[in-house]
Structures are given as structure tokens and as C-alpha cells.
Amino acid sequence: MLNIVLFGPPGCGKGTQSEKLIEKYQLVHLSTGDILRAEIANNTKLGIEAKAFMDKGQLVPDQVVIGMIASKIDNNKNAKGFIFDGFPRTTAQAEALDVMLAERNIPVKCMLSLEVDKEELVKRLLNRGLTSGRADDQNPEIIENRIKEYNAKTAPVIQFYEKQGKFRPIKGMGSIDEIFERLCKAIEK
Ligand code: AMP
């Protein structure tokens, strides 16, 4: 099984590159952001709880997102592998994912971390806001909060995978195809 954690700050290209990786390696895409937005669209209790955090650019509490992921893994028993996109976003989430995957004997192969300058991130998010319809992509203050949350709570996840020898930094600037090629090289190494 090919299990990949695709990592990086908001706007680094995780969603775009996930789509290409899924196609090439036939993986199942698990994006906690997408799952949460679907919950909001369906007006579920979980969605209503999560929306209050997402609207402010804050992370949703760990126990909410951790609980969502296990059932998604179990619903895809025949998967060739998973791309975890936007998860784990805290060290507690990374620890919980490790336990979940160890119980199922399907470890993470590598954590690919897309590195993009802050200026470029803000530019990409505001641009995406013009077409995505996502309120959190349209407001510079919310974007700033999301980047702050990333630096404070999410960036430490790098050390978690570095200790396991699974951290692979990838230059996330350049064309979509150039970045995709770098990701594929790191996966196949
Ligand atoms: P994304 O689509 O990955 O940019 O996520 C959009 C928003 O959903 C984030 O700003 C968070 O509020 C929330 N979110 C998504 N994934 C997670 C996660 N793993 N942990 C906590 N909050 C999350």
C-alpha cells in the first residue's frame, strides 16, 4: 500500500497535486477540509460545530477530525493507498494517525512537504477565492489566521515525521507539472 501524507501551508498546492497523484498512483484521496465542507453542506451536527472554527481560520478540534478519518479508511478496504491531504495538522493528529495505521498494518510511506513563500501563498489563496466560493479564501484576515495556525500548530508535525525518517521537503514553487515531477521522484526514491 502506498500511503502518503501531503503536507504544507494553506495555498501550497496540496489539493491540485493530490488530484494528479491520485490519478497516477490510483490512490484514495482523504482531505479533511473537503470532508468538513461536505458535512457543512449537509448541515450535520459535526458540520455546524466545525464551521464556527473554519470561518475564523482556526483549526477544528483534534477529536473531531481524528474521529472522521478512521471510518473513511475502513470504508476503503481495497484501496491501493491513501493520500492524506490537510491531515494531520497537529502532532496529536499525527500520533493518532500512526496508531490507526499501525492497527491496520498500513504505515505511512513518506510525508511530502510542499514549501512555498508566504507572499506566494497569500497571492494563490486570494486568487482561488475569486473562483472557489470559499469564504476563507476571500478575506485577508482569515488567510493570515490560517497561516498563523499553520506556523504555530501544524509546522511541528514536520519533526514528528523527521524523527521517523519520512519527511521529504519539496520545492512548491514553479509550474504544476514541475512540482508534480518532484513529488513523483520523491515517492519513487
Ligand atoms: P483546507 O481545505 O485543508 O484548507 O481546510 C479548511 C479548514 O478546515 C481549515 O482552515 C481548518 O479550519 C479545517 N481543517 C481541515 N483539516 C483540518 C485538520 N486536519 N485539523 C483541523 N482543522 C482542519
Q: Give the integer mean of the pLDDT values.
A: 97
Note the main sheet: 5 strands, parallel
Q: Label the CATH architecture.
A: 3-Layer(aba) Sandwich
- Percent helix: 55-70%
- The CATH topology label is Rossmann fold
State the secondary-structure class. alpha/beta
Ranges where pLDDT stays below 50 over 5 or more residues in a row are none
Strand order of the largest sheet: 2-3-1-4-5
| First-to-last CA distance | 15 Å
Ligands and ions found = adenosine monophosphate
Write the layout of secondary structure elements.
Elements: E1 4-7, H1 14-25, E2 28-31, H2 32-41, H3 45-54, H4 62-74, E3 82-85, H5 91-103, E4 110-115, H6 118-132, H7 140-154, H8 157-163, E5 167-171, H9 176-188
Parallel strand pairs: 1-3, 1-4, 2-3, 4-5
The site of adenosine monophosphate has 17 residues, from helix 2 and helix 3.
Write structural notes for this entry.
- The protein starts with a strand and ends with a helix.
- It is built from 9 helices and 5 strands, in the order βαβαααβαβαααβα.
- α1 (14-25) crosses α9 (176-188) and α4 runs parallel beside α5 (91-103).
- The protein has 189 residues and is an alpha/beta fold.
- It has helices spanning 14-25, 32-41, 45-54, 62-74, 91-103, 118-132, 140-154, 157-163, 176-188; strands at 4-7, 28-31, 82-85, 110-115, 167-171.
- A 5-stranded parallel beta sheet has the order 2-3-1-4-5, sandwiched between helices.
- The mean pLDDT is 97.
- It is globular.
- The chain has one domain: 3-Layer(aba) Sandwich (Rossmann fold), CATH 3.40.50.
- Bound molecules: adenosine monophosphate.
- Adenosine monophosphate (AMP) is lined by residues 10, 32-33, 36, 53-54, 57-60, 65, 86-87, 89, 93, 136, 146.
